[in-house]
Amino acid sequence: MNIIILPPSAFDDTTAMIGNADQLNHIKTVLKASVGDTLKIGKMGDKMGVGQIAYIDDKICTLENIRLDTGPPSKLGVTVMLALPRPKVLRRLIMDMTAFGVHHIILINSIRTDKSYWGSPLLARLDEFVLEGLQQGVDSVPPIITLAKRFKPFVQDELPGLINDKSALVFHPYAKTSFTSFVSKNPLPKIIIIGAEGGFVPYEIDLLASVGVQSVNMGERILRTESAVNAVLGRWV
User: Is the pTM of this model over 0.70?
Assistant: First the structure.
């Protein structure tokens, strides 16, 4: 937690209130801050800055001398469309993509996505994972998150509008063109698409190709979803 991001409702004209248990615990046990100390803070969807602790106990921390004068860092300018991963890695992926500065995250169904994943209670906690990612990456503007439970309608009806005149790549273990080869001759794509652990099936790859998505591979090795996402996004930083 490299900054504390607070909702707009936490602020009034001169002060801010922190009541989140995780944030309070971080202030007290990691930062070991007390009255008079200054904290790095940000307003969700707005600017970042500092606030001085005026009061703190086990349930609340009051900040005064609030100064929010720093704009958030630029986003990467990339949309990540990802087959809904296993629930136990969903948190890490949302955190990592948010910390990287992904502008738009699309979680989509695929043939290799277990139907039970869509019933996971973790899907109701995406805002929590985004907050963790923002606080890790020192950002105050959350990504857009879209849940697309039907692959074919989304690809045929929604994806072309997102692509427009932009480049879009799907990472597929059996594609003939490598990502390294693609970026050596072209700008980085604006949309990247990554499947489940075994990749998308041929039908899905063909459907993506029909709307202008090019397939690329990441080399001879097949990576776990979270490894692939982080490896690809590393090209932007």
Answer: yes
- Residue 232 CA, chain-centre distance (Å), reads 14
Same domain (yes/no): 110, 208: yes
Q: Distance (Å, rounded) from C-alpha 200 to C-alpha 84?
A: 12
* Secondary structure letter of residue 186 according to DSSP: S
Helix, strand, coil percentages (3-state) for the chain, rounded to 5, are 40, 25, 35
Residue where a domain stops, chosen among 52, 70, 88 = 70
Residue 213: DSSP 8-state: P
pLDDT digits (tens, 9 = 90+) for 43-65: 999 999 999 999 999 999 999 99
Cα dist from 91 to 38, 57, 97, 99, 226, whole Å: 30, 29, 10, 12, 10
What's the number of domains the chain is made of? Answer: 2
Query: Do residues 19 and 61 share a domain?
Result: yes
Question: Looking at the structure, do residues 50 and 146 belong to the same domain, yes or no?
Answer: no
**Residue 107, C-beta contacts closer than 8 angstroms, at least 6 positions apart:** 82, 83, 84, 145, 146, 147, 148
Tens-digit pLDDT profile for residues 83-114: 999 998 999 999 999 999 999 999 999 999 99
**62: Cβ–Cβ under 8 A, 6 or more apart, which residues?**
15, 16, 17, 18, 53, 54, 55, 56
Q: From 21, 41, 70, give the residue that closes a domain.
A: 70
Residues 214 and 143 in one domain: yes
* Domain range enclosing 24: 4-70
- 71, 182 Cβ separation under 8 angstroms: no
* Residue that is written with structure tokens 């932007």 in the block: 236
